[in-house]
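Continuing the series of single-chain predictions for the mutant panel. This is the parent chain; the variants come on the following pages.
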Amino acid sequence: MIYNRKIGILGAGQLGLMMVQACSDWHLQPEFLDPDPNASAKPYAKVELGNFRDYESVMKFGADKDLISFEIEDVNLQALKDLEKMGKKVFPQPRVLEIIKNKWTQKQFLKENEFPTSDFIQFDSQNPESVQFFLPAFWKQNEGGYDGKGVSSVITITDLEKLPSIPGFLEKTVEIEKEIAVIVARNEKGQIQTFPCVEMVFHPEANLVEYLQTPAAISENVDVICKKLAIKLIEKLEMVGLLAVEFFLDQNGKVLVNEMAPRPHNSGHHTIEGNVCSQFQQFWRSILNFPLSETQNIHPFSAMINLIGEPDFEGAPVYQGLEDCLSISGIYPHMYGKQQTRPFRKMGHVTVVANSLADLQQKVSFVKNHLKVIA
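Parent structure:
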């Protein structure tokens, strides 16, 4: 039933690596397309060297595949559309990717479909004075931003003048109490499952998730609202696959949709050890149209800490303090196999599980203080 389908994935980075690990029990053998000869998934799967942004490369790669997916949004959309027209299954669907990969289009979708989200306006870099009234805000690059790149805080007119001359928009600053994320999956049959809410804490310099924990310290009402909005979003998109939805909880208790990602996501890495089903296995279940798994936490508390390159280090990575962390029960390091570290680059993550919040916080603090990626 499974094995007569050839599966292709665009991108073979850390998400591709964890996709392979998650489907190994079923002996699935997906093939990957990636321009990096040292891509993270390469030691564990067939990786074809090629540019997933290039139309011809994607068409050639997909020609003999029955099912095609991706682990990065920055892929050739037209090729995916044409492969779908040829009868290939492409999940998530190209029309969904078209909405989400451009953050401006994504915000318009949210507004047009009456999802609560922060205010936003277009930004013309040639005329910054015209939007001075909208400050303070965040500037967001329309396409290509990731891991905090392509996002800038804008407080004054001087900050506006420093922004790059590429397509972007301004999003009104929200007085945030917490940032929450929910991962939701949907298969072709229309079955839907959400993972428990997680609470995210961002790195003050790198503007990416430093660590997250679950269960999130939110009211039952907020928990229900976030999950209902995630379900409503994947239903409105009629999407097949895994959708990560990030929310702002503002200081007035209002829930706002921040951003979406149509793939496994950093906010779900803890599920490998922390839940009855990982986000990566749920990804496979959803795109293969298998029954979706239950998703409940299997430990009272769990967390995920991103391992990022230390400032002022660049070169072959050294994981300082790894043995210290491995000596403690409930700490699970994951390395992505990247051959070069640089400041704030994601090099791996650590899952922590615990029986109490105090124990969780102690372990998270230990990892943050002891496990460093240097060169």
